Amino acid sequence: MEQICLTSTARQRSREARRNGKRIGFVPTMGYLHEGHLSLVRTAIRQTDFCVVSVYVNPTQFGQGEDLASYPRDLEKDRCLLEAEGVDILFTPTDDQMYPGMDQTRVFVPKLANGLCGAFRPTHFEGVCRIVAKLFHVVEPDVAYFGQKDYQQAAILRKMAQDLLMPVEICILPTIRDNDGLAMSSRNIYLDPLERQAALSLHQGLQQGKGLVMRGENSPSRIEAAVREVIESNPLVQSVDYVAVVDPDGLQPCFFPLRLPILIAVAAHVGKARLIDNVYVTGDG
Amino acid sequence: MEQICLTSTARQRSREARRNGKRIGFVPTMGYLHEGHLSLVRTAIRQTDFCVVSVYVNPTQFGQGEDLASYPRDLEKDRCLLEAEGVDILFTPTDDQMYPGMDQTRVFVPKLANGLCGAFRPTHFEGVCRIVAKLFHVVEPDVAYFGQKDYQQAAILRKMAQDLLMPVEICILPTIRDNDGLAMSSRNIYLDPLERQAALSLHQGLQQGKGLVMRGENSPSRIEAAVREVIESNPLVQSVDYVAVVDPDGLQPCFFPLRLPILIAVAAHVGKARLIDNVYVTGDG
């Protein structure tokens, strides 16, 4: 595995690989890797011929008062994990490489980015689109991999890539969970043992909601209320940003009577962590 | 010369060319080609190995009440001209190819796009960035060529490409003029003979302004007033959108005392045509 810090070198490696007839798989991350990231990496390695993983904590996707400074980092461990998986290129650019000069160009996907997390983190998805557009222009992947936990992010990036005719396929893979159901997230490190227990309520609430739908409940507001009740019943959950039943394509609120498939998505604050999770409910269980 | 309508085929041809070690030169146009376009094409052919020219009248860069429907078109003549120059690919996509689905992704460069033409055509440069980003993702050029007449457009696109780390160099080439000094533009076809005569006042005003600067005038407002006077003295000039002395990089207004280089830029309405022109003034004449 080669570690690269320069955009010019990273692009050169991708172009060499493509010239040799290889398909390029790309997993953009902010590092502090967990099994969720690694499942993306393994799929990239299986499905493509040349695997690039980036580790870059992107400042423009953090809002004021958010956890940019304290976001967990452990590049040495990340490097070992990726080396063990057989990754070809670890791309670890500096801020100077990703934001040279007085960067001012904005990329955004208004309708998909307005609701859900976008309503609580108004500049977040603009920062995500901006950095991922840059990374795509450097790495020039054929396929890029994202996790379903960040469903809205993945939907926005897929739409961005389609709309701008970017030559990349966006592949969204299932959320990886701990044995007890907690969705893996680098931010879980913020949780103490009691908070971690409380954080399970997100998954439990979503499972409750999914169960209601499977048993025929067709009122979005009753489903949202039931999910919210499970989560808020836990005193260590400080606040729930949203519980929402939306259509999985446009991410717009669903109306009564529900038509499947739907996505039930939640965001809540537990301790210092803002956690998100979601469940996709089709008609076939 | 091969004419291509599908984005997938256009990308395939570029990738084949790159695989064969060729550098790709790209000239995006809205067609109705004149010597200005052809000078870009000739430079592309001289400087690169594979020349792609697109002809596409992009609806999103026209505002309400602008001339989208009446914009001049003559694809048969354009094809003959490009064939004669030795262009490799003429890319003529349909709206369906460039805007598939419910396209919603926006790309914009706020500071550079706010002033000059952006103040009078508030959605114009967003439409330009959007279509050029798409075209770049399809054609994947090494160098793209733009004319200096559309100075603000070229500056915005260069900034977009730099900021988003697009692997393309933006090359801005001098304005091509008729013998009498009128900057070539597809929209000159809107002018009747008397209006065409009146349109010369833009170039004359700019030359007057440049002359003042060369003789030591260092007040932007006096220069702007002098340029405006030349233009407005012509009764067939219906209105002047702006006369502005700006710094050529940031396109922000210059203050007294002037420091070179500067750009003097104008936009004015003559008959049915909205015309623009500019002059770049360095210290060395």
Q: Can you give me a brief rundown of this structure?
A:
The structure is a homodimer of 285-residue chains. Chain A has 285 residues and is α/β, with parallel strands linked by helices.
Q: Care to describe what's here?
A:
Two copies of one chain form a homodimer. Chain A is an alpha/beta fold. Chain A folds into two domains: 172 residues, 3-Layer(aba) Sandwich (Rossmann fold); 95 residues, Pantoate-beta-alanine ligase, C-terminal domain (Pantoate--beta-alanine Ligase, Chain: A,domain 2). Chain A has ten helices and ten strands. A six-stranded parallel β-sheet of chain A has the order 1-4-3-2-6-7, sandwiched between helices. In chain A, strands 8-9-10 form a three-stranded antiparallel β-sheet, covered by helices on one side. Chains A and B meet through helix 1, strand 5, helix 5, helix 7 and helix 8 of A and helix 1, strand 5, helix 5, helix 7 and helix 8 of B.
